[in-house]
Amino acid sequence: MKFVKKSLTTFILSAGARFLSVSAFSPIPDPATLLYFYTSDYDTACSTLGQGYTDIINPQECEAARDYYNDGDFQPFGPAGPFRTEFSTDYGRGCVGLAPIITGAFPMPLEIVYNTDSTGGTGTRDFFKVCKNEAPLGGSTNSGGDPHFIGFHEQLITYQGECTLILLDSPAATSTGEDVTIHVRTTRKLDFSYISGVAMKIGEDIVEIKPNADIILNGSNIISGAENNLTMSGLPFAMTKEEKGTKRLIVSYSFDLGNGRVINIQANKKRSMMFVRTTGIFPDETTGMLGSPKINSEMVSRDGKKLSEIDVNAYGESWQVKDTDVQLFQEALGPQYPQKCMYEDAPGATAQLRGRRKLLAKKTVTVEEARAACGSISSATKRELCVQDSISMGDLEIMDDPFYAEN
Questions:
Q1: Is 388:403 a contact under the CB 8 Å cutoff?
Q2: How would you label 151-180 residue by residue, b for 16+ Cβ within 10 Å and e otherwise?
Q3: How many other β-carbons are positioned within 10 Å of the β-carbon of residue 304?
Q4: Is the dihedral of CA 279, 284, 286, 287 positive or negative?
Q5: Most exposed among 224, 272, 349, 403, judged by the fewest C-beta atoms under 10 Å?
């Protein structure tokens, strides 16, 4: 039996490049939230760990699993830890975990190796199969509302400038190696702001989605948001459509990039607002408003400054689309670089505001009403965002939007 051998300490990596270090006597984390995990016996299929788990079939991926484990913080598993206590001697090609029998509160060092043949093994070590989760829970980002940006590590910022922003720029993000770039257009509307347009480049194809759910593909192929047939060939992604909301006024497009990565773009036709959600583990080199999925990384501006070192406006402005960046929207609207992002109401807005306040006089939403309307949202963070946005927009139906309801 031949091994590529590396030693490491014992802990588990969670999805979205965050670590779930398990202290003594802690329960085993839910495997659905983890990027790498292992079966209780080497002969057990990875699929038993849940949907998305697959065998590791090459030494490079096994090495990646070892590197992910090595990059985390160590806390000991107790005797109730997740390692097997019996020894398996029958295993074949794949990524193999080796751990001594755990006694007491302190584990011995753990190793992960790639088995290059199918011979059995004997000795004093405990063998288990290391598996990869192609679509772990928790690696998602969300953008929408007033507008709020929830990054790869669940950092939350609210940026209310009006301009065009680089939401995400991810190299080789599809299963066939195409780069992916997403731009969003933000618009001020007197008392609040929102995402009013989304354009995305996948490889050489550009998709722009309008607030009315119409799609412009590569500048000319216009697909109405009312169409249900979205079958298109020759593209490096699969696209599906779904209508959501109590009145079916939210159109949701999902773009499957492969490798467990999905980009979901929603157009709320009633409010002309748009929302963007990503799921899956994107490459560490990903940049933009949402930050990087790289382990322990902070949100960083385009010029390398940490969000903790600058204010949110400076952070947002750094990701404004420049004239040297690829231009994804068909039409240039709002402030365009070198014009700065706008924070004041547009000319004439004062008169519009007076008229709008008269129209909304009976639509004033109180904190109590907003909390009652948003009370069913399970995520505390999303629930509070729903309350804030319901009040600022004067709309108690805002909670119907999946941006608030989906974790």
A1: no
A2: bbbebebebbbbbbbbbbbbeebbeeebbb
A3: 8
A4: positive
A5: 224
Which of 52-66, 163-177, 243-257, 335-349 ranks highest by mean pLDDT? Answer: 163-177
Torsion angles phi and psi, residue 164, rounded to 5:
-105, 130
Find all residues with CB under 8 Å of 368, minimum gap 6, and list them.
Answer: none
- Please state the separation of Cα 132 from the chain's center in Å: 18
* Helix, strand, coil % in the chain, rounded to nearest 5: 20, 30, 50
Residue 32 burial (C-beta neighbours within 10 Å; 0-12, 13-18, 19+)? middle
Residue 341: predicted pLDDT: 95
Query: What does the alpha-carbon distance between residue 185 and residue 164 come to, in Å, rounded to a whole number?
Result: 4
Q: For residue 277, what are the β-bridge partners?
A: 142, 264
Q: What is the pLDDT of residues 119-142, one digit of tens each?
A: 444 433 456 778 887 766 546 899
The three-class DSSP label of residue 68 is helix
User: Is there a contact between 32 and 16 (Cβ–Cβ < 8 Å)?
Assistant: no
Q: What is the Cα–Cα distance from 179 to 326, expressed in whole angstroms? A: 12
In the structure, what pLDDT confidence band is assigned to residue 354 with cuts at 50, 70 and 90?
very low
Q: 44: how many CB neighbours lie within 10 A of its CB?
A: 15
CA 311, chain centre distance (Å): 23
Q: Is 124 helix (H, G, I), strand (E, B) or coil?
A: coil
Average confidence (pLDDT) over 187-201: 90
Q: What is the pTM of this model?
A: 0.68
| Residues 43-50: contacts with CB under 8 Å, at least 24 apart | 43/88, 43/90, 43/91, 44/129, 46/129, 46/131, 46/132, 49/131, 49/133, 50/133
- Average pLDDT rounded to a whole number, residues 326-354: 78
